[in-house]
Amino acid sequence: MSHQALYRDKRTTAAQAVRHVRNGDMVIVPTGVGEPPTLLTALSEQRRDFLDVKVAQILAMRPYAYIDPETTQHVRHVALFFGGATRAGGQAGWIDFIPNYFSEIPAQIARGLIPAEVVFSMASPMDDDGWLSLSLGADYTMAAVAKARAVVLEVNPNVPFANGDCRIHISQVAALVESSEPVLEVGLPKIGPVQEAIGRYVAERIDDGSTLQIGYGGIPDAVVMQLAHKHDLGIHTEMLGDGILTLIEAGAVNNSRKNYLPGRTIATFALGSRKLYQYMHRNPALEMHPVDFTNDPLLAGQNDNLVAINATLQIDLLGQCGSESLGHAPFSGTGGQSDFVRAANRSRGGKAFIVLPSTAKGDTISRIVPSLSPGTHVSTSKNDIHYVVTEYGVAQLRGKSAKQRAQELIAVAHPDFRGELTAQARLARLL
Ligand code: COA
After folding, report:
1. Superfamily of domain 3-178, CATH level 4
2. Which residue, 178, 182, 196, 201, has fewest beta-carbon neighbours within 10 Å?
3. Measuring from each residue's beta carbon to the nearest atom of ligand 1, which residues come in under 6 Å?
4. Counting atoms of ligand 1 from 1, which one is nearest the CA of 369?
């Protein structure tokens, strides 16, 4: 059968396509905007016909009807990283989560530790040779494709056909539906004076020719905005966003001085504007790869001068970062934070920046604390932490003793909290 005939044979309605799911299955969905809205809406509509079906994903974007505390015995979400659509359910306890390093999810799928009976994903239209691109999220989805009983795609002409290891052949597909809505767009966060100040401190420490990983959240984007005047930057990251596109357009990124995969921007998922998705289409200067490749600290660390920029919610005086929960309440996930902190530590000349405003809730709470709040999930450990940056300056913790770390961190805390932090540090025999 020709590729086109195979394609026509597998094309069906969303209501039929979701019938590839069986009771008890785990459905794997790509990160963020790689989620297929038509398929997940159809699954939501039919959810009461199923029993014990789980949908696992990093950063669910839309509040699908299946994300419903009343129907969890039928279909329920399992967060690999919480986002806006799932955070409230996680905090209320009816959405469970699987702790992980992003880089290791593919191996957990390959070994059957995370089941993957079905894949639901967005895909680009098919090329003449029968290939479709899972460009919006190669991440752990490629590992799930290799393992799944049924791969079900939502083919949309607005999904770019990207280079890299993110392709699937029509012969591997169980069913497909077609849609033509624009891919969901995610704007850059608002940047205020605190974010700008942090961005400046980090930007001052990034040399021309460095390779960047840009994390998730407002401040990593604020840093990016201050790098447009740099030269010969490279990108080896997990998330491709509009901040990076701005640097490419400004001529600051050309990947010429990368010593690992030179000449190419490397990422595992995309989250941004229509302009970004269009930039990705058949672009020889960009490759999308599975996350066990992009985020492997040994591989990413082969880039000299690798700079990792990631955000946290709270940090204690040893440098342990609670980046993904507020006490017991889950907020997001580890994502690639630890992967890239470790990668930067391995890189010759590498720098890992953890960035945070010094306070939260209108300056009423210090984010630098003597001890993490009870229940906090530690994302970056005291053994991995390198630079910590607030709007008051930069603390360099690597190689420093516990006492030196406490001093460095108190010096970049909000002035209103420095006295209390010093008193608490003395009580804990840290000072
Ligand atoms: N105590 C109480 N509330 C706090 C707090 C603290 N210590 N720290 C933050 N908050 C509140 C903020 O006030 C804010 O609330 P609001 O929305 O009501 O204003 C909210 O928590 C989010 O904080 P903010 O600093 O704005 O977060 P962000 O959207 O910039 O995201 C992370 C920051 C840390 C959540 C995000 O970067 C993350 O998930 N990091 C871990 C994963 C990671 O880095 N991966 C790498 C790339 S995927």
Report:
1. Glutaconate Coenzyme A-transferase (3.40.1080.10)
2. 182
3. 215-218, 238-239, 310-314, 323-324, 326, 331-332, 334-337, 360-361, 365, 367, 379
4. 7
Could you report the per-residue pLDDT of 118-133, keeping only the tens digit for each? Answer: 999 999 999 999 999 9
Closest of 16, 389, 373 to residue 196, by C-alpha: 389
Between the two ends of the chain, the Cα-to-Cα distance in Å is 74
Model-level pTM?
A: 0.97
Q: What is the pLDDT of residue 223?
A: 87
Mutate which of 216, 341, 421 to test ligand 1's pocket (most atoms within 8 Å of Cβ)?
216
Q: Where exactly does CATH 3.40.1080.20 map onto the chain? A: 193-427
- What confidence tens digit (pLDDT) does each residue in 213-271 have? 999 888 888 889 899 999 999 999 999 999 999 999 999 999 999 999 999 999 999 99
Give helix 415-427 / helix 402-411 axis angle, nearest 10°.
Answer: 160
Ligand 1 atom nearest to CA at 322: 34
Query: Which pLDDT belongs to residue 106?
Result: 98
* List of residues 6+ apart from 4 with CB closer than 8 A: none
Residue nearest to atom 36 of ligand 1 (CA): 217
β pairing state of 118-123 and 351-355: unpaired
For a mutational test of ligand 1's pocket, the pick from 223, 313, 389, 417, i.e. the residue with the most ligand atoms closer than 8 A to its C-beta, is: 313
Q: What is the mean pLDDT of the chain?
A: 97
Q: How far is CA 178 from the centre of its chain?
A: 27
Residue nearest to atom 33 of ligand 1 (CA): 217
Q: What's the gap in Å between 25 CA and the centre of ligand 1?
A: 32
How far is residue 169's CA from residue 191's CA, in Å, rounded to a whole number?
Answer: 42
Strand partners, 365: 360
What does the pLDDT read at residue 172? 98
CATH 3.40.1080.10 domain locations along the chain: 3-178
Give yes or no: 238 in active site: yes
Mean pLDDT, rounded, for 362-386 = 98
d(CA 163, CA 267): 11
Query: Which amino acid residue places its CA nearest to atom 18 of ligand 1?
Result: 361
What's the pLDDT at 221? 82
Task: Work out which ligand 1 atom sits closest to the CA atom of 214.
Answer: 47
Q: What is the pLDDT of residue 187?
A: 87
191 pLDDT higher than 90 = no
pLDDT of 420 over the 90 cut:
yes
